[in-house]
Amino acid sequence: MVTNAFGQAVGDEVPGWEPRPWPEPVTITGRYVELRPLSSAQYADLHAATCGPDDGDLWTYRPIPRPTTLAELWMHLAAHLDDPALVTFALVPLEGERAGRATGLASYTRIEPGHGQVEVAGVLLGKALQRTRAATEAIHLLMAHAFDELGYRRFEWKCDSLNEPSRRAALRLGFVEEGRFRNHMVTQGRNRDTDWFSVTDAEWPAVRAAHQRWLDPANFDDAGVQRTSLAARR
């Protein structure tokens, strides 16, 4: 335990700490997916991928219900571009039935350069992207960009406590569960308790290595089915 001159416990020093850069809307390319800065040119593809008659469940835990028209989605996404607190990316798979077309979304938010912390939020995966290696790689790329290129110290994931697929995804990806904020939000007129997860810079090297082992092409058969799970790789 570290104590100060007054005998009080204090945190460890962070040698040479300086505020980190604000994330820029850059293109980030992986093996299976490319993250492109969100633009209105992608709205039609996103509408087709996430707003069909059978896609209502994709919007249950989002701020708004499923947009039924391109105009409604346009207004929703335009607000992302107008919000200076968000850096939003379209997720464009490089393989599969929707290769080259925007099929999902994710944003950096709660960006605090002075403390080196950032959150991934608003993750929306069209059904063609769900449970694919491209979806896993998309989150990996966002984490790698924040930790390895921008030098952040903490990467957060939050979700509605009732959103079990999101909870499972966080744990699968190596996030540590930190707790629950009760009565945290009102979403679509309903109470939301929010579960918090994080990965720190000290944990990131092991998490990164597990992701890289899982994402290696040798871990998949010719049909793209995993040979070993990510949990096993960790």
UniProtKB/TrEMBL annotation:
Chain positions covered by the region annotation Disordered: 1-21
A Pfam family that the UniProt record links to this protein: Acetyltransf_3
TM spans (from-to): none
InterPro entries (alphabetical): Acyl_CoA_acyltransferase, GNAT_dom, Ribosomal_N-acetyltransferase
UniProt keywords, alphabetically: Transferase
Stretches assigned to the N-acetyltransferase domain: 33-202
Gene Ontology molecular function, alphabetical: protein N-terminal-serine acetyltransferase activity; protein-N-terminal-alanine acetyltransferase activity
Coiled coil: none
UniProt protein name: RimJ/RimL family protein N-acetyltransferase
